[in-house]
Amino acid sequence: GFFGKLFLITAGASKGNYFFITIAALNLIVSLYYYLRVIRAMFMDKTEHPVEKIIINPSAKLGMVICAAGILLVGLLSWVYDYITGLT
Prior knowledge:
This protein folds into two domains: 1-51; 54-88, no CATH class. Helix content is 76%, strand content 0%. It has four helices and no strands. The protein has helices at residues 2-14, 18-43, 58-76, 78-86. The chain is flat, with a radius of gyration of 21 Å.
């Protein structure tokens, strides 16, 4: 994703490989155009057939909240993950 491209561009800049940086910037522009079109289609274009609301039972909602909290906890507070893996 983004950080992989950032690391590659930083490495290319530190070595003075400006041809590589130019190619990476062109690739970034093309991919940005593609992804922004997808986002525009998702949020700004009107749909012909509106999507029906999905009804989810409370136990499934609870499971999703627990999973999302775990992902955020590990992603934002990585020391918690290190502590948990150190317990075993």
